[in-house]
Amino acid sequence: MPIFKVPVVQSFGIVSQSHQIELQNRLLQKVQEIEESSKKKDSSQRNPIEITEEFIQQFQNAKEGSEQIYYVDLAMKMLNRCKRRAGLSTLGVGEHVDLPLAWTELLLLALCRGRIQEEALDILALSLDHAPISPEQLLVLLCAAETVLYWVCSSTAEKPFLGTDEIKILKLGYFVFLRLLILHLAGHQDGFQNNRHSLLNYLQALAGCEASYQHFPNILFVVQFILMTGKIICGLDPVYTNQGGETKLQEQCLTGSGSVNTRPPEQKKYEVSQIQWHSVLAWCCVQKNTVQLHDVLHHLLSQQDELHQENWISSLLGLMVLGEAAKTNLPCLHAFLDLSLDVFEKSSDSSQHLHVPIRRGLSAWPWQLIYVYSTTLTEICLNGCNSEIQKTALVGKRPCTQKNDLNQSGLLWLLNWKSLPNSNVNEEKTWYIRYSAVYCLELLCQRLQGDATREGLRNAAWKSLQSHLSKEKDCRVLEATELAKAEISVPKTPFFNVNAKPPSSSDHSRPSQHVSWRVADMLSRLFFPPADPHLLVLIRPKKQMSPPRAPLPKQPAVKRKVTRLSLSQEILLAEATHEPLPTFNQKTECDLMKMINDQWKKELHITTEEEALKEKEELEEKQKNEEECMKSIMRRREEKLGKKTKPYELHFEAVTAENRGSDAHHVDCK
User: Fold this and answer.
1) What are the sequence ranges of the domains in the chain?
2) What is the DSSP string of 184-248?
3) Distance from first CA to last CA of the chain, Å, rounded?
4) Largest Cα–Cα distance in the chain?
5) What is the DSSP string of 496-511?
């Protein structure tokens, strides 16, 4: 059997094991150098100010010195780009504005420590305050909501003291959840069920942190607002859903009684409360300067009892919108103040002369609404369109009775607010009210500092505040001044805006820099949507046209006897006027022109009569079409809102639809 020899090839030659390991290490090092050079080449081609997770890690791991300065400067360039992309100088509007991308980048930059984190939170809060509300923002808002809840529950709530960063993050959460609530009411959350379900665990954790904010009512309000709106967004509030059994099962997620995984409840049409409805209607009347404002405010005050309900979210939106209207309209401010008053009547017992309450005001409100009431009054003091509105918001209306404060209202009134003898108001609610008043007055004094034009307003607020602090014995209320001073560095909150100039009383179209204006505008479009395109022409308000006059009865033509002058008389007349005698041609031309004028007048009279008759027929036909279309509008409104509409509301909707549809094409109603 033949023997085949297989040659053995030694790729490394005849070397020792130590030399072989050394050669492998050199080859591995060479490969690593090639990979590093390729990475550097890729990074050189990448945008140097692109915000990525890799940049965040490099920023966090940067050593003190030149490396840290380099990354801080690079992060500041990113912040400047985010400012422009968020449209801070243009109220979030413009071709260069991309709000979802800007907010995403700011959330990433907020992960950096120190000055960059504070700047990013400030810019994000400012942008969320004045930017328009759009369904395109829904995804980034849901992500921002999860991020805010994670920050609060994981780090800030564990601190033994309240920090400035914690205040900023919670105020940021207020803006985010307020926008999510408005978009939810508008029905723009379809397709985001997974994102909403992921909020449940964070809301459960936040509910456990609620007790740590009991000594700070302003921060506690934000926490409870997030919890309430979070339940609505996730479909846990029975007022906003129509599946009671499934709602009770889902509410276990917030109480910790069990974990469930249910499908999202079907949503029904949002039931508008009367306070919210009339507040939005009053705001629209102010914007359009309509005459129905008095009737709307009268009906608004008649629905005062709705402010006593435990579900205060709808009433909160109503107070916010009405306060926005009160900045430019004094009757709206009076109505806003009257909502908080207790209405009394004298008792039949003449010996005691007691005042019996027939309608409860501020004493029956939830304390969250009282906080919103005080902060809204402070915002009116800062941004009212004239001095009279600002003064009225501070000191209230003049009393109608002597030697009593039953008709007093205003921000200063809240300092010495006392509950009625039989109102059963607990002490916790009482010191919450005083805390809110002290906190708002301190903020008002700080914001007005240095404003020479409103020095008198600031002095009145400061003197009243110092007088109250000298008599206040509750240390929890006294801490409100320190918290307000620390919060001055916090960016503009939903109720305070130091840099915004008061709007002019003659300029109602200029948008405000507050989220309350955006909320009012969004709710007005939700409650009063534009009519169908083919109805725009019919509901357009017309000028009051007087009916065409009836044609005058034809008078029988009276044939006048034409007397012509004789030749001798014409000669005498010409000699008297020193004028030359008319020639034959001139006389003939004059007679011809008279005949032409007479014929033209006859034809004009006939044409005028025909046009008047035609116009009368067209007007009758148009009125008939308008009545039919208005009946169809009534049927659609009753089907959509489930309520009958008052006459002045119908007329106002016609005015609103015309102003919104003035640029639409003319389409005849069929």
Assistant:
1) 44-131, 274-344+356-527, 530-541+582-670
2) HHTT--TT-HHHHHHHHHHHHHHHHHGGGGTT-HHHHHHHHHHHHHHHHHTT--TTTBS-HHHHH
3) 107
4) 170
5) --SSPPPPPTT--SSP
Which pair of tokens denotes residue 128?
Answer: 């969320």
Angle of helix 274-288 versus helix 515-527 axis, rounded to 10 = 100
Backbone angles phi, psi at 267, to 5 degrees: -95, 145
- State the number of CA atoms in the 13 A half-sphere of 105 facing the CB: 22
Would you say the C-alpha torsion 631, 633, 637, 639 has a positive or negative sign? positive
CB 337 within 8 A of CB 414: no
- Bridge partners for 57 per DSSP: none
* Structure-token pair, residue 2: 């033949």
DSSP 345-367: EE-S-TTT--EEEEE--GGGS-H
- Is this prediction's pTM over 0.85? no
Q: What angle do CA 364, 365, 371 make, to 5 degrees?
A: 140
Residues 6+ apart with CB under 8 A from 411: 374, 377, 378, 381, 393, 394, 395, 396, 437, 440, 441, 444, 461
Encoding tokens for residue 108?
């990433």
Between the alpha carbon of residue 513 and those of residues 199, 253, 285, 530, 641, the distances in Å are 29, 37, 20, 25, 31
Of 454, 476, 459, 478, give the one whose Cα is nearest residue 468. 478
Dihedral sign from CA coordinates of 117, 120, 126, 129: negative
d(Cα 31, Cα 22) in Å, to the nearest integer? 15
411 phi, psi to nearest 5 deg:
-70, -40
**Residue 39 pLDDT level (bands cut at 50, 70, 90):** low
Q: Cβ distance 434 to 415 under 8 Å?
A: yes
Instruction: Give tens-digit pLDDT for 443-454.
Output: 999 999 888 899
pLDDT at 155: 72
CB–CB of 329/339 below 8 Å? no
CB 226 within 8 A of CB 252: no
The CA R_g of the chain, rounded to the nearest whole Å, is 38
Strand partners, 359: 343
Under 8 Å between Cβ of 280 and 517: no
Cα distances (Å, whole numbers) of residue 214 to 37, 223, 232, 608: 57, 10, 23, 80
* Mean local confidence (pLDDT), 297-321: 90
Q: Dihedral of the CA atoms 279, 281, 287, 293 (nearest 10)?
A: -90
Is the pLDDT at 463 greater than 90? The verdict is yes
pLDDT of residue 504: 42
Pairwise CA distance, residues 416 & 98, whole Å: 48
pLDDT of residue 68: 82
